[in-house]
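FAQ
Q: What does a multi-component entry look like?
A: The components come first, one per line:
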Amino acid sequence: MKKIETGKLYILEDIATDLAYLKIKIGKNAQNYVPGNFVTILPPVSSGRYLRRPFSLAGNSDDSIELIIKNIGPVTKSLVSLAPETEVEVLGPLGNSYQIPENIKKLWMIGGGTGIASILFLNSMRQGNADKVLWAGRTKDQLPSADLFYTDGLESRFSHIFKKNIVLATDDGSIGEKGTAPEILERWLGQESPPDAIVSCGPHGMMQAIKKIADARNIPAWFSLEEFMACGTGACAGCAVPSSSGGYLKACVDGPVFAGSLIKFDSNQQPHVFSRFLAENCEKKH
Amino acid sequence: MINLNTKIGNLILDNPFIAASGTCGYGIEYADLMPPEKWGALVLKTVTPKERVGNKPPRCCETDSGMLNSIGLANCGIDQFIEKKLPEFAAKSPTAKAVVSIAGETIEEFVFLAEKLAKKDTTSHGRAGVSAIELNFSCPNVAKGGIHFGADTLSAKEAVKECRKTTRLPLWVKISPATPDPVAIASICMESGADAIVATNTVPGMVIDIWKEKPLLGNIFGGLSGPAIFPISLRVAYLIAKAIPGIPLIGCGGADNAEKAIQFILAGCSAVQVGTAVFRSPDLLYKLLDETRLYMEKKGCTKISSFVGKAL
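Then the predicted structure of the entire assembly, as tokens:
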């Protein structure tokens, strides 16, 4: 059952230039979260923003939930600048979850940027020896460096979510393999037998390209979608996702995880990022 | 002893706080977080004669101190609403008061909807669980009907008059803040048989994405809600209350704490609808009730009616 809880932020660490890892201690309701679920967080006062923001879980423990957020907008930037032990208000668990049939033994999970969060959670809950995770970013700013990931110990310090089957890749090759997520998927498909299924979460354009590849080869695929949402509970119908059978589905309650066959991607639909790019890049000149 | 009861026309509510239409879904979406019966009433999502899929996304975005939405009255249609949504709500919370918001593109459609809701079921007034009907004359996000009704006194008059013939349920009329003469609309609606006026709905607005160089919302325009619009809504409510003494009035638009809600009451409203603020804090009602009690205690008043319209 969804609840509003106040939790203390007790681990906050930058894992890439644009990404932060957060652990929030909310108590034992943390155990009720499953991969695919999300929370909405009340914006810190310092953000100057009003509505709660949705974040998919990257993992959980007995008393805490874990998030990986992209510190790009006013709310995420103010979250990552909070002092340890600051209380944040969390509403969850929200949304559906990944329902991967048991006969899927080989699952490829593709996360773009911060879209990796729910995939890390799913991967950590599976014991699939044949599973593989691709974590793709545009440039090195969006991924942990290989040093940080493998040598400096992200993989060991957060070993419950950063498993050994994760492959890093960037469009420009600045970290990990070189290529976009769809390019690397094609490469993998050329190298070995196809997976039983694919799941993906990331920018719409990336998921659209992955869906095309999966559909062409009849590989079942699930996608976890992020949309701007006001309520997160199914009340407002603001987070509409075009349905393949006409009309719309709600990302917050019908999703965020959808079978690829149920949805249509519309590249215009990528949620707007509330950046303050101009203000932040001009202020030093005066 | 402080009593939060309030009276809107002949309808008595346990407290003056009402969940606004479009923000509390069909009444059950927030039930885990806030028991529906704690609200004075809940105005359910606007229902239309046929199912509507709603507008092209993106449908909403945050703006300074508020949000823009262009949902486009996405809803399941009146038949599905009566067969499924209303019984679900009644089962979840048998004592909660539901107000059904309706919108038609024509007067005939408004009448059709009012008639459906008035069909005798278990009470002599209307369907079980329905305490009132809210005529949505102010949705900014649909091509036909909606806000156009609220801007045209003749259509508003006819629609209220014809709906009045179909039902004894209280009829509330929700008007737009963008209407040129809110007093004229409110007064003609009351003369035609409305039981109360809800002032107001969202304020028409838009946002442009400067990087994509095009309007952000799929529908281009949307309705602005949240604290940003509070002074606008309050002015409209005040104008109406001042011009039509004693009019049953419900404030709506931007109240997100008791200090704002009390301003609506002092401006002549006997109840206050709350919407966008619930997206932010689904359990806001508890605070509204506590803070209102504290205000009444400090002012030494025991009932809501004793300060309705005191600032007029």
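Q: Is there any commentary attached?
A: Sometimes. For this entry: DSSP finds seven helices and 15 strands in chain A.
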